[in-house]
Write a structure and sequence with these properties.
Radius of gyration of chain A: 22 Å
Helix content of chain B: 25-40%
Number of strands of chain A: 13
Strand order of the largest sheet of chain A: 3-2-1-4-13
CATH superfamily of the largest domain in chain A: FAD/NAD(P)-binding domain
Distance between the termini of chain A: 29 Å
Structural class of chain A: alpha/beta
Strand order of the largest sheet of chain B: 3-4-7-8-9-10-13-14
CATH topology of the largest domain in chain B: TIM Barrel
Strand content of chain B: 15-25%
Helix content of chain A: 25-40%
CATH class of the largest domain in chain B: Alpha Beta
Structural class of chain B: alpha/beta
Oligomer: heterodimer
Chain lengths: 451, 438
């Protein structure tokens, strides 16, 4: 299965980059939660310097390659492009992918060498996007960083939780290697709390960044749910990444319950991998889905069916226990019906990690949702020298938000440890802007209206 | 419909669009195709003592995704024999009697010129063009621009030509000279009937940064070439106008230099060209481009109620004055239409870093300025400080939205006053000195 968008050829990238206006204080920068200086990197592509473009991208966002694939650019940089109203926006995502792939494919190392060692040690719990983003910046500043990851491979959802047609795991794993090349030590298969206690971390490290993400898939809590044929959508997507495609178990009639982007990924993947019927059932109306409109349109374009206002009340099983379907009640009409299926994938959200967090740090302040309370500009928590970011703090946002939070925490940790301020990489195309009216992307990212 | 036919220095042509002497006018085959496409005239590739050529021959300036914005060649005059060329000229003239057919010629001695002129005229051409402009190869043999750069030599050779020529003679000028009017006057003194300009400009288009040999590459080396194409149009327009404005000159002018479409052609005509000649645009897109030139010029003339190109020729020549005669009291300022502004801020940064620091980025909430399409809430908007605006045009030139930045005339209570008048009034003590800019 190929990535859904073909990469840009050299000539296409050149042509596309030449359309960029090279705005001054460009809105695309404001829309990027890692503050990538988009006009600068695009200008470099236009000038025939793809490696220089990659340097601009990766200096601001170490996960620039995966973000170029998984970012909802329509509501971020491309949605903010000044050309998006009357013309077509610049294809920033594809250009970013072009530049980052250029250096990855050629093994060109574009980042500045890390600063002289400071002697400080920082532990990061979780090797997902927030942890990697934080680790890369801390390592660049000269700190020794150890990432503790419970899975066997680093990268978090980027490695195992993104639909295959959007991004292959190789992209994420290349980024993990890039972070390691800065001197970051990644220990996988380590369960913090059992293999290593929070007290161990606090005594052995000068600072801790918690980036443990969210828990596994939630459950419906209805009769018949436990049993054959029912899986979490994330497990299904993970199989696609880890197993030969032909051995991934795909039903003939696949039903996905949920209304978010993971639900869309799952139903699209099922259909693309050979399900005869792939249906998405959502308990509310279409305009209430949290999935992006363009993702929904993409699923429809692959012949996925969607039903709305479908509240599941029972998983119906055959006499032998085999999956028969799901009984729904229509929210408006109250009508009941059974939607047949031989595979049921649940994508009803990942639970918060509040119990686990409390077990690690009993006095850590959590909000009502079960997320770590942090200062948005520094990632500081209620505990001394403990910082947090990514899904466990924001409740579940984009990869790029997680990287941005990791970066901000890295700067705050550096300041706490050394007393010095770490300035983020200057944005040449905003050079001289004294007071960013709407944020500079990293500090206060704006979100454009969905077109 | 306007009648596009013209008579240039006595040469009738169904339209003012001619092909300049060059690779597109090398053979009868090409000439037939060009006339089928609708070209009004052809200036045949320069005929002379046939010379071998090198490989490769062309190079180009590409700019921002546009290919061949500028074009460079090191090709010499025709590498076919005069016999072949004259035979084909005859064949073309017989088949296209209503079109203008001009032979471009280049040789050295008086006897050779006499011989070449006679043979050309015997082939039935309507006129002769003297190539005094080629800036590479031929000039090293004492021909081409070596002639055009020396007015006395150009005059003398023109005199030789006029001793035998019965058909109208056009002298083609090189731009590789300080004052083009000196070359034009020399042609007139020699008795020429018209001039054509510009020939190509000495150039190096690019350097290969791996082997350090400029293009075009010839076995580890290159040579200075002749530059043409859209990039040279402003230089050519200036030289055409210089000649058209010169009261001591006064002969017809055939305009050449970067003409790609009807609008370019109309501008050359407005600055005094009776016909125009095209080469690079045809080398890029083929003969078919003339169709749009004919239709476009015709529609333009109709829109201006002009019945013939004659009504257009020279119309803009006298709008150019010396700087010292321009009105110092005229004032324009930039106005930004915030309803169409897309927020790229190019006007701000161009003014701030490149001009006069009079476009501020202001908070839209405090200024009460509206939002254009696609604008981001809270993002600053560019606002012109009109009191400090010098009316330089830069912001309106960089703005990517048509009509968003307009240059608005601010009526002045003062009478018009040029620098010359200012000097007079200053000397008389009638006026206080204009204060220097702070």
């Amino acid at each position: 299965m190929e990535e859904i968008h073909a990469p840009l050829s050299d000539q296409a990238a050149l042509a596309e980059s030449q359309h960029c206006l090279y705005c001054y204080d460009a809105p695309c920068i404001h829309a990027c939660p890692t503050g990538i200086d988009v006009p600068t990197f695009i200008k470099r592509i236009a000038n025939g310097d793809a490696a220089g473009a990659a340097k601009t991208i990766l200096t601001a966002n170490i996960l620039g390659a995966s973000c170029s694939r998984v970012c909802p650019t329509e509501v971020l940089c491309e949605g903010a492009c000044v050309l998006s109203h009357e013309y077509e926006p610049i294809q920033i995502g594809l250009l970013q992918r072009y530049a980052t792939d250029y250096v990855t494919a050629r093994g060109i190392f574009v980042l500045d060498a890390p600063a002289e060692a400071t002697g400080f040690h920082v532990a990061i719990v979780g090797a997902g996007p927030a942890g990697l983003g934080c680790a890369a910046d801390l390592a660049s500043l000269g700190h020794h960083v150890v990432i503790l990851e419970k899975e066997v491979e680093a990268g978090g959802l980027n490695t195992r939780g993104v639909a295959y047609y959007k991004m292959k795991p190789r992209v994420s794993l290349d980024e993990v290697r890039l972070v390691e090349s800065l001197g970051v030590e990644i220990r996988t298969g380590v369960n913090v709390g059992t293999d290593l206690t929070a007290a161990d971390l606090l005594s052995q490290y000068d600072a801790i960044f918690v980036a443990i993400g969210l828990g596994h898939e939630s459950e419906l809590g209805i009769p018949g749910e436990v049993g054959a044929g029912v899986r979490s959508a994330l497990d299904f997507i993970r199989d696609i990444h880890e197993m030969p495609l032909e051995s991934v178990s795909i039903g003939k009639t696949v039903l996905v319950i949920g209304g978010g982007n993971t639900a869309i990924d799952a139903v699209s993947q099922a259909k693309r991998l050979g399900a005869t019927f792939a249906t998405l059932a959502y308990r509310r109306k279409e305009d209430q889905m949290s999935a992006y409109a363009f993702e929904v349109a993409l699923a429809r374009a692959t012949d996925c069916r969607m039903i709305f206002e479908a509240k599941p009340v029972e998983v119906v099983r055959h006499g032998n226990g085999g999956l028969a379907g799901v009984k729904f009640i229509h929210a408006s009409s109250g009508k009941e019906w059974i939607e047949p299926c031989d595979q049921l994938l649940l994508a009803i959200g990942q639970p918060k990690q509040d119990h686990f967090l409390k077990s690690l740090f009993p006095s850590l302040q959590l909000d009502a949702r079960g997320c770590v309370v942090t200062d948005p500009l520094t990632g500081r928590t209620s505990l001394h020298k403990v910082f947090a970011g990514g899904d466990c703090a924001n409740g579940g946002m984009e990869v790029v938000n997680a990287v941005g939070e990791g970066k901000k925490a890295a700067m705050a940790i550096h300041h706490m440890l050394t007393g010095k301020t770490a300035a983020p990489k200057s944005q040449n195309s905003r050079c001289g802007i004294a007071h960013p009216a709407a944020g500079a992307g990293l500090w206060n990212p704006i979100r454009s209206a969905t077109h | 419909m306007a009648d596009l036919s013209v008579i240039f220095a006595g040469i009738p042509s169904p339209n003012p669009f001619w092909l300049a002497s060059g690779p597109p006018t090398n053979t009868a085959y090409q000439a037939h195709r060009a006339f089928e496409a609708g070209w009004g005239g052809i200036v045949w590739k320069t005929i002379g003592d046939p010379t071998p050529n090198v490989s490769s021959r062309y190079s180009a300036l590409h700019l921002g995704g546009k290919r061949m914005v500028g074009f460079n060649n090191i090709e010499l005059i025709s590498d076919r024999s005069p016999e072949t060329n004259f035979r084909e000229l005859r064949e073309v003239k017989d088949r296209w009697p209503d079109r203008a057919l001009i032979a471009s010629l280049m040789t050295d001695t008086r006897e050779h010129w006499h011989d070449l002129i006679r043979r050309a005229e015997d082939s039935g051409v309507d006129g002769i063009e003297l190539n005094f402009g080629c800036p590479h190869g031929m000039c090293e043999r004492g021909m081409g621009s070596a002639v055009g750069q020396n007015p006395d030599v150009a005059e003398k050779i023109t005199t030789w030509v006029m001793e035998v020529a019965r058909k109208p003679v056009i002298v083609k000028l090189t731009p590789n000279i300080t004052d083009i009017t000196q070359a034009a006057r020399a042609a007139k003194r020699g008795g020429a009937n018209a001039i054509s300009l510009i020939n190509t400009i000495r150039s190096i288009t690019q350097v290969n940064l791996d082997n350090f040999v400029p293009e075009p590459y010839v076995d580890g080396a290159s040579t200075h070439g002749g530059y043409c194409g859209p990039a040279v149009k402003p230089i050519a327009l200036n030289m055409v106008q210089n000649c058209a404005q010169d009261s001591e000159f006064g002969l017809p002018i055939s305009g050449i230099g970067g003409i790609s479409n009807w609008r370019d052609a109309a501008e050359f005509m407005a600055l005094g060209s009776g016909t125009i000649q095209v080469c690079t645009a045809v080398m890029h897109h083929g003969f078919r481009i003339v169709e749009g030139m004919i239709d476009g010029l015709s529609a333009y003339l109709d829109s201006k109620s002009m019945e013939s190109p004659r009504a257009l020729i020279g119309r803009a020549v006298h709008s150019l004055h010396k700087w010292e005669d321009l009105n110092l009291n005229f004032k324009r300022v930039a106005r930004i239409d915030h309803d169409t502004c897309i927020g790229c801020n190019l006007c701000h940064i161009a003014c701030e870093d490149g001009a006069h620091q009079c476009i501020d980025l202001l908070d839209p909430e405090s200024t009460g300025i509206g939002y254009g399409p696609g604008r981001m809430l809270g993002k600053s908007v560019p606002v012109v400080r009109e009191a400090d605006c010098v009316g330089c045009n830069l912001c309106s030139l960089v703005c990517p939205v048509d009509g968003c930045v307009s240059m608005v005339e601010i009526p002045s209570p003062a009478e018009p006053m040029s620098w010359s008048q200012y000097q007079v009034q200053l000397a008389k003590g009638d006026i206080a000195p204009i204060l220097p800019h702070p």
